[in-house]
Amino acid sequence: MIEFYLNERKIRTDAPPGAGLLGFIRKEQGLKGAKLVCQEGECAACAVLVGALKGDSVQYRSMCSCIMPLANAQGRHVVTIEGINGAELTPVQQAIADCHGSQCGFCTPGFVVSLTGTLLGGRRPGYGQLRQAIDGNICRCTGYKSIERAAQRIAEELPAADYGLEALIREGYLPAYFRDMAARLAAIADPTRQGLPEEETASAAPLFLGGGTDLLVQAPRKVQHSAVQPVFNQPALKGVREEGGRCIIGAAATATDLQESELFQSVLNPADGFFHLLSSTPIRNMSTVGGNLINASPIGDFTILFLALDSDVRLQDGRRERTLPLKDFYLDYKKMDRRPEERLAAIEFDMPKKSLCFSFEKVSARRNLDIASVNTAALLEIGGDGAIRTAHLSAGGVGPIPMYLRRTAAFLKGELLDEELLKAALAAMQEEIAPISDARGSAEYKRLLLRQLVLAHFQKAAAGRVDVGSLALPG
Ligand SMILES: Cc1cc2nc3c(=O)[nH]c(=O)nc-3n(C[C@H](O)[C@H](O)[C@H](O)COP(=O)(O)OP(=O)(O)OC[C@H]3O[C@@H](n4cnc5c(N)ncnc54)[C@H](O)[C@@H]3O)c2cc1C
Fold first, then answer.
1. Is the shortest distance between the CB of 283 and ligand 1 below 6 Å?
2. Whose CA is nearest to atom 4 of ligand 1?
3. Ligand 1 contact via 426 beta carbon (within 6 Å)
4. Most CB atoms within 10 A, among 8, 179, 299, 385?
């Protein structure tokens, strides 16, 4: 039995936990405001807000209901456009109407939901945050400028004094029932319970279910008819923390959790804009790091990032736990050193010292909402004497698995960094990779891309000590 609130109404359902939320909302509940368009999380015409109890208030995130499994609604407040509508247009809807931000109107509910969700973060958002909130919403009519003008107007007109839930209800941005949602969610016995009968969770080879952003795109029917074991809302698999100099990330931490973690952000190179290269706001709200690693795509962005951080993965089967290096985890295309009953519990790595430089690079056909043609990361330390003290390099899109570039890293480690060494290392790297030609580019193109992106790592780490620019054109 799955129990949650859909707008103002409490839902108790025996529908399969792996079924898509959008189908349930539209077919079972007759709410047609959230639209079914791409069914791949790429357009957010199906956007809903999903509220989770945090202390004594509710934290809302926008999500794509077309690929959100029903199980992940357990204990949550799901808000569709019908749950925002009142007798009058809300100021968000009014701004979109006045600025001509709606033409055919098919995508408009998704925009209203995404924008309204941004108002619920506790702090008064500015134009930048409102603009960011709709990075996953696609509109095919307006050309976006009118929607951006609406976002600008919303930012200007938001209540300034006592900004918060009460002010938003008073000014008509939200219906009054939002006031009671924290108490209502608290009354659902255990908001983290996943609503699965014991015999299903005891399955010998359960289908672990994170945010569903890979599974419900790749195999929605299989998920609907499988004995799924949802991990998305498991408290034991959440969180980002430091323990004894190690950074430990729960496998069910979402991309947004990491984006909001100061600890994790301190590891990244701010100039790389890692999270801006990763999917979109609603998908980052849903996608877990564990899902990225276990999906085992050769171009998974988190996978490539964690490989360069020389991470370990912690696996549990209910009785035992084991830890192994991520670089030994991938055996062949989509094959891992993992038994079917083992779930990924955490990813961990040594917090890099200040002298280390972390770098992430990704090239995709589109800058936003696209997976990589080639991605790569590096953790490098170059001593005052010019010697390379630490070298970890990873690369995606250049082989059947996400690659830790062992031979290239070993070639570099301990050597004095100069143009000749770098040139030889780049040549050695070409021996280590085996890209294929596919829709994301020819094998030659991917070889060239990786070469240039690895040079970019060294440009950042060497900070002018070698003339990386002189190598930019392959000789
Ligand atoms: C529109 C869109 C854009 C995207 N953009 C990007 C992008 O830019 N970069 C990128 O790398 N990816 C991208 N993705 C892919 C996807 O979002 C990520 O791979 C994501 O991290 C998967 O996490 P999830 O929780 O949704 O996984 P799920 O779909 O829930 O699961 C994926 C796999 O992992 C398994 N699994 C999940 N959690 C566990 C666990 N704890 N233990 C054992 N097995 C587990 C599942 O059984 C399944 O096999 C995109 C997807 C969409 C739909």
1. yes
2. 279
3. no
4. 299
Number of folded domains that form the chain: 3
Orientation angle between helical segments 108-119 and 91-98, nearest 10 degrees: 130
Q: What is the DSSP pairing of strand 207-209 with strand 228-230?
A: parallel
Residues 109 and 121 in one domain: yes
CB neighbours (10 Å) of residue 325?
Answer: 13
The encoded tokens of residue 207 equal: 């289908």
Query: Among residues 174, 195, 216, which one ends one of the domains?
Result: 174
Asked whether residue 387 falls in the same domain as residue 428, the answer is yes
Give one word for 369, left, alpha or beta, with left for phi > 0 and alpha for psi -120 to 50.
left
Answer yes or no: is the C-beta of 422 below 6 A from any ligand 1 atom: no
Same domain membership, residue 323 and residue 369: yes
- Cα diameter, the chain: 71
**Residue 472 confidence (pLDDT):** 79
CB of 42 within 6 A of ligand 1: the answer is: yes
C-beta of 3 in contact with ligand 1 (< 6 A): no
- Same domain? For 246 and 137 the reply is no
Q: Which pTM was predicted?
A: 0.95
The CB of 207 under 6 Å from ligand 1? The reply is yes
Provide DSSP, 204-273: SS-EEESS-TTHHHH-HHHHHTS-EEE-TT-GGG--EEEETTEEEEETT-BHHHHHT-HHHHTTS-GGG-
Contact 295, 213 (CB under 8 A): no
User: Among 257, 283, 374, which residue has the most ligand 1 atoms within 8 Å of its CB, making it the best to mutate?
Assistant: 283
Distance, CA 404 to ligand 1 centroid (Å)? 20
Domain range for 392 is 235-471
Statement to judge: residues 392 and 329 lie in one domain: yes
Q: What is the CATH number of the domain that holds 266?
A: 3.30.465.10
Q: Is the CB of 233 under 6 A from ligand 1?
A: no
pLDDT at 33: 98
Residue 280 CA: which ligand 1 atom is closest?
3
- The verdict on 199 and 136 lying in the same domain is no
CATH of the domain at 8: 3.10.20.30
What atom in ligand 1 is closest to the CA of residue 208?
47
Parallel, antiparallel or unpaired: strands 77-79 and 2-6? parallel
Compute, in angstroms, the gap from residue 280 CA to the centroid of ligand 1. 13
Q: What is the CATH number of the domain that holds 129?
A: 1.10.150.120
* pLDDT of 278: 95
Q: Give distance in angstroms: CA of 297 to centre of ligand 1.
A: 9
* Same domain, residue pair 99 and 243: no
> What single-letter amino acid sits at 432?
E
Pick from 300, 341, 309: which is nearest to 327 by CA? 309
Average pLDDT over residues 142-171: 96
Are residues 140 and 199 part of one domain?
no
pLDDT tens by residue, 324-360: 999 999 999 999 999 999 999 999 999 999 999 999 9
